[in-house]
Predict the structure of Positive regulator of comK.
Amino acid sequence: MVKRLFIIWIGLCFVVSLAGCSGEGSETKIEKVGLLVPHTINDQVWGTKGYGGMLNIQDKYGADIFYKENIRSQALAERAVEEFSHKGITLVFGHSSEYAEYFNEIAPKYPHMHFVSFNGDAQEKNTTSLKFEGYAMGFFGGMTAAQHSSTGTIGIIATYKWQPEVKGFVEGAKFEREDTQVITSFVENWDDTEKALQLLEQMTAEGADVVYPAGDGYNVPVIEKLKETGLHAIGYVSDQSDLGEDTVLTSTVQHVDRLYLLAADQFARGELEAGNLYFDFADGVISLSPFSKEVDKGFQQEVERYIQQYMETGELPNKQMEVRNHE
C-alpha cells in the first residue's frame, strides 16, 4: 500500500512538473537584447525613446542590453548583428524603417534570433515590423491646429509623403474648420534641419501660424524657431511642451518605449508574430499629450471625447459624420 501511494505521488509530481512547463513556465527567458540606431540614443526624441524601451525590457526581465549607434548601411548592420550573435543575443531591435530591409537580408543567416524594426516591410519568418497607425494622431493634431489658428492657414512639415499622419492632419483640420488652408511640405530626410527651416520660413510667410513638424530629427529646431516668432506648434513623437508650454499646443506622442516592452512580452511568450503588426490609440502606444492652457477648454473636452470614441469604436468623427449623412 505504501509502495502504491509512493508511485502515485511520483506520478502526480511528474504531471505537475509537466504542467510547470506550460503557461508561464514556457516563456522564453530574455537574457540579452540588442539595439541598432541610425544616429544616436541621445537625440532626446526618437533615438532616446528607443533606448528607453530597452531599459524597460532590462527592468522587467533583468536582461543585458547592448546597442550600436550610427548603423546606416547594410554592411554595418550585418557586422553589428554578427557581433550580437557571438554575444548570445536572441532579440534585436532596429530603430528605424530602413532596418526592415536590412533584416530581410540578414535574418535567414541567424534563425536563432528574432529581428524587430519599425514602419517597414518585414518579410522573413523571424522578422517583425512594428507600425504606428499615424493617421488618427495626425487627425487630432490637425483639428487642434485648425481650431487655434488665427489666420486660417496652418502647415505640416513632414519627411515623406507615405506618412499616414500627413493625410490625417489635413483631414482633421478640414473637419474642424472646412475653410482651413493646409500647406504641406516634405523634407525627404528625417534629419535635414536646414531644409526644414527653409520650408518653415516659406509657410509662415504664407500665413501659417500653427505648424506640425512631423520628423523626429528636425522638429525641435522648428519648434524653437516658432517660439522665437510667437507662433505655435503641434509636437511630434514625444511630449514637447518642455520646449514652450505656450508654443506647443499638444503633441502626437508615439510611446516607442511601451511598444518595445509589448514586443518583448510577446517574444517571451512565444507569441511575437512575423510580418507587419499595427498599433494605435487603443493599444496604449499612441496618445495626445496634455493640451496647452492656450487651447480652448471646451475644445479640449471635445477632442478627448472623440479620442475615447475612437478607442472604443475604431471610427474617427469624420467617418461617424459620413455615416449620419447617409442615414
Summary: The domain at 134-253+296-326 is CATH 3.40.50.2300 (Rossmann fold).
